User: Fold this.
Amino acid sequence: MENEYPPPPLPPDPAPVPELRETIDSSPVAGTATPAALSAGEQAVFSPVAATPEPSYRDQSTGLMVFGVLQILLGLCVCLMIPLMALGMFMSLATPGVHARPMQFFSGVATYGFMAASLIVLGIGSMRMLRWARALTVVAAWYWLVTGALVTVLLTAMLPVVTTAVMSQTQKNSGAPAPQISTGMMAVVLTIMIVVMAFFLVLVPLALVIFYSRRDVAETCRHRDPVERWTDRAPLPVLGASVVFLTRALYMLSVGISMPMFPLFGRYLSGIAGSAGFLLFASIDICLAVGIFRLRNWAWWLAVSTLLIRLISMGVTFARADLMQAYSKLGWSDQQVRQLSANPMLRGHAVLWWSLLSMVIFFGYVLWLKRYFRAPATTNALVPVSTSVG
Assistant:
């Protein structure tokens, strides 16, 4: 028997909520809610943008541009030394009894040209925010700072004596009384000279060291230049020693051509023998530059042994040998030798002993680098670019 009561009507379908329907329709998977339909706390969990960490460094792009321009300007200023050297050479040709040595002129031109080219190239690399430019600027600035500080101290101590000696020698050669300069005026002139030298030899490299050693600068270069560079393959202290050995090799090649006076355990080898000595140690320094950079243990031991031999040889030679006699063997005239012997910096071997002090400092630095040569010689681990000197 059929049911006489009809079934109750079904409730009407609920009207779709506009926001929910729009969310479901726009979802990439049907029935999946997007972060727009979630609460603020849920959006923070599911949003990929919120999960990305913020950079933990301050971008130093502007600073890299400014210091890059500064290095380029310094390089252009160094270029001005080349015409000044040419002018000095022509003036020496016009001076009676003074014979200019062309090889010394070309050696000076090569030295200033190398310095100018290095500053300009590093400045361009800094403006492009390249990793290798930042690393090489750090090690070059440290080398500049240490040597500049030593030179500034030496000149501060010797400049008053040298100035007085030059004025006396000038008066003696001319035969006319030199104009009297008061002590106060002389002090002002010497102070200005020392301040200018300290600015370019100490303050400028110190500013470069402080800026380029910052972690923010290293991270900026690492993000702007994501490609691994060759300077990333060694710690910055090791890279610095490698650069110093390479620079010393170039310097000895230049001296071996222009001024072949090689100190060897109490005597100066001149001529072909002196050039051969400089060429030999320049070749050793080039091998050390490569081996130290590759973190080879044999390179560290060879560097320590050869530096110790050089220190002993230079010390004995500076104490016993006659420097003026060595200049005479190079063909210098008697007048030139007398002028050199009248210079207090050469008469007391102040410059020679100061150069020996710089080598002692570098020898101690190489000893300190032993901590980086504990790994086997066959391995060469990559070191992050943010490794700083010190």
Notes: The beta strands are 261-264, 267-270. The longest strand covers residues 261-264.
